[in-house]
Specification:
The chain contains six helices and nine strands, in the order E-E-E-E-H-H-E-E-E-E-H-H-E-H-H. Helix 1 packs antiparallel against helix 2 and helix 2 packs parallel to helix 6.
Length: 194
């Protein structure tokens, strides 16, 4: 049976043991879990499996997940966004960049993950910017990567696609500067709203 360094949970005749030590050799986003069980026909058994953790991505953890070429592109984008003053938040799957309004609400503009970048806006932020600005944002973003299809240009509710790092490697710093133009526009609209 497992040592005392584990958290034990009994669930439908399975003893789930989540090892809390020796995590350093694993991916930042995985934790080892061992299921211990008893089968009347076979006796005791166990099964090891990785599980995703709830640890939010950071610049360091995202770059560790990427290939060398993709991490160089992502690093240039992140460094420029940080220099421009973007606020950041992380989820287990995404590193999110945006701005925080005076009321403390975070307003995302783009995300980075293992696949590339996505341009994202809250529906109320799309409405605040207006249809023409959203069309211009989407149209011009396609200069850097194929984020939006033609029919998505005027539909702010349409989420778009991930701009892969292989597309963004041509002008990663310019892409970050382009996203900053919309951060500035959104911040001005948010200030006037309050």
């Amino acid at each position: 049976m497992p040592s005392s360094k584990c958290n034990h949970v009994l669930w439908q005749a399975h003893l789930v043991s989540q090892w809390c030590d020796s995590l350093s050799s694993l991916s930042v986003r995985e934790k080892p879990v061992t299921d211990y069980f008893y089968r009347p026909t076979c006796g005791e058994g166990h099964e090891n499996r990785p599980t995703k953790s709830g640890v939010p991505l950071s610049k360091v953890t995202l770059l560790q997940l990427l290939s060398l070429e993709d991490s160089q592109v992502a690093s240039l984008i992140i460094d420029k966004l940080e220099a421009l003053g973007f606020d950041q938040q992380g989820t287990p799957e995404n590193l999110i960049f945006g701005c925080t309004s005076n009321d403390g609400e975070f307003h995302p503009l783009m995300t980075l993950d293992e696949a590339g970048a996505c341009i994202v806006l809250l529906p109320k932020d799309s409405e605040l910017l207006g249809g023409n600005e959203i069309h211009n944002l989407r149209f011009s973003a396609n200069i850097f990567a194929p984020f939006f299809k033609k029919e998505q240009m005027t539909r702010p509710e349409s989420p778009g696609y991930t701009g892969q790092y292989c597309w963004l490697k041509r002008e990663p710093v310019q892409f970050a500067e382009y996203i900053d133009e919309y951060r500035i526009k959104l911040m001005k609209k948010l200030e006037h709203r309050e």
